[in-house]
Specification:
globular; mainly alpha; disordered C terminus
Length: about 500
């Protein structure tokens, strides 16, 4: 294997197929279910953290520039929701890294020296940056100057974005391994170029897509909370501002997320053609290729699905950026992989791929319509007086979570049966000494634990989102460098 991801060498192919059959299929399925369950639950919090951190920083910047007390009140209000989300998100995320040693030790032994590099960067740099400055922001209202305090919330936002960057760099290496060579003695991959990992095209486009999706999620949450407060008459002059900010962020970020997602599909079609073919249940090679709005059938046992409302040329555009682009079908790809890597099924779950793609796309389209509707009401100065829109905006907060979960399934399920594309099969990556009983019990414990954490997060978020907005103090909530540490300085947001 060369540094930049050209075709695998025979030695690398042998690594992928050399240990087949050492693990029970039940163990593999249970381990996959456990990792999928914990990852999906954790990923519910990550986009909210990133999005709300950026939006809270924007609110505090607006207050810093204009000294308008309503922006300070909104900063405290949404900063409280940010802190709650970070606290629960950290707890759910701790489990992820431990699973590599618990259920996926074979994976860790083979590629841990590569996969561990970006994870170490995330822990030593990004997480400490985010957590340290979050503490400074939270407890520094009456101790730091106004300028320094503003920098702390932006440091939190940067830290959250860096954390996601390093995690996605590691994940993208699994999708398209680059920057390594196979050691001829140990027959294990060794990292030779960390820069290749950090400039992996799958990472570059995937990271941009996740950042945009995070802004969409944070803005949708802010819009939903603002809309609920406006419906109940909670400080309309203030929450109308946060609703406008959310809408101004939502429309362009959704549009850019769609464009970047389309380009990401082209990149994945280049390096993971099986994933893209499965997303359309395309069993035969086509040129040009249509994209079906909906279909009947199309799973592994049904290679002739009935497409309904197929849009000509759209799949060619999404997969190749060309009007008459060619998309290789699942059947010829299966034959190609069997010749290259040995016998076995290399087709992912077609049902999950097909519907994940459409849930993500349709939810994004619906979110765009709601946001455009809101901007139209802002232009007509009727945002706060439209009960139908406010109700729709409140419930629309669920759409980004559907989008993010569907996108995660599309990305991760589409890589199967590979743990590392073309290098290590999932069935060869699990821990050989962990029993079925141990995985099943731990899965049950995680389901119960995450259910409690989800309930706690939901109740806390709803409780603080429904509370009265904290009002300005008698002195107008001024917070200048000259009066830092004064007794009348604003109290930390967590107290509200």
């Amino acid at each position: 294997m060369t540094k930049r991801g050209r075709p695998l060498s025979p030695a690398a192919g042998e690594v992928a197929a050399g240990r087949a059959g050492i693990n029970d299929l039940v163990n593999v399925d249970l381990a996959r279910w456990q990792f999928a369950f914990t990852s999906i639950n954790h990923f519910l919090f990550v986009p909210v953290t990133i999005g709300l951190a950026i939006l809270t920083a924007l609110l505090q910047t607006a207050w810093h520039r204009g000294q308008r007390p309503e922006y300070l009140r909104l900063t405290r209000f949404f900063g409280t929701l940010l802190v709650i989300n970070v606290a629960i998100g950290v707890v759910t995320g701790l489990v992820q890294e431990f699973q590599f040693g618990m259920n996926w030790s074979a994976y860790s032994r083979l590629v841990g020296n590569i996969f561990g590099a970006p994870l170490a960067m995330e822990g030593l740099l990004a997480f400490f940056l985010e957590s340290t400055f979050l503490g400074l922001w939270l407890f520094g209202w009456d101790k730091l100057s106004r300028h320094v305090h503003l920098l702390t919330i932006w440091a939190v936002a940067v830290g959250s974005m860096l954390s996601a960057a390093f995690i996605l760099a590691a994940n993208s290496w699994m999708q398209h391994p680059v920057g390594y060579v196979i050691n001829p003695r140990t027959r294990q991959p060794q990292l030779t170029d960390i820069w290749a990992v950090l400039t992996n095209p799958v990472f570059v486009w995937g990271y941009a897509h996740v950042m945009l999706a995070s802004l969409v999620t944070g803005a949708a949450v802010m819009l939903a909370v603002s809309a609920w407060q406006l419906r109940r008459g909670g400080t309309p002059a203030v929450f109308a501002r946060s609703a406008r900010l959310a809408l101004i962020v939502l429309v362009p970020t959704i549009l850019f997320a769609m464009l970047v997602g389309s380009e990401l599909g082209v990149i994945e079609g280049r390096y993971q053609p099986m994933k893209i073919a499965a997303a359309e249940a395309q069993w035969t090679t086509c040129q040009p290729c249509s994209f079906s709005i909906i279909q009947v059938g199309g799973g592994k046992q049904d290679k002739t699905p009935t497409q309904i409302l197929a849009i000509p040329h759209l799949l060619s555009l999404l997969a190749t950026n060309h009007w008459n682009g060619k998309v290789t079908g699942l059947t010829p790809l299966q034959n190609q992989y069997s010749r290259k890597f040995g016998p076995g099924s290399y087709v992912p779950n077609v049902f999950i791929q097909y519907w994940s793609m459409r849930v993500m796309a349709y939810a994004a389209g619906l979110m765009l319509l709601v946001a455009a509707w809101g901007l139209w009401l802002v232009r007509r100065q009727k945002l706060a007086t439209s009960p139908l829109f406010l109700r729709a905006a409140t419930w629309a907060a669920a759409l980004p979570f559907l989008m993010n979960t569907a996108g995660w399934l599309l990305t991760e399920s589409g890589r199967q049966p590979w743990a590392v594309q073309g290098l290590l099969l999932t069935r060869n990556a699990v821990s050989p000494t962990v029993s079925t009983t141990m995985i099943a019990v731990s899965l049950g414990v995680f389901v119960a634990l995450y259910a409690v954490l989800a309930l706690v997060d939901l109740l806390l978020m709803l409780r603080y989102a429904r509370r009265e907005l904290p009002g300005p103090r008698a002195d107008g909530d001024r917070h200048d460098a000259s009066d830092a540490g004064a007794a009348d300085a604003p109290v930390p947001a967590v107290q509200y």
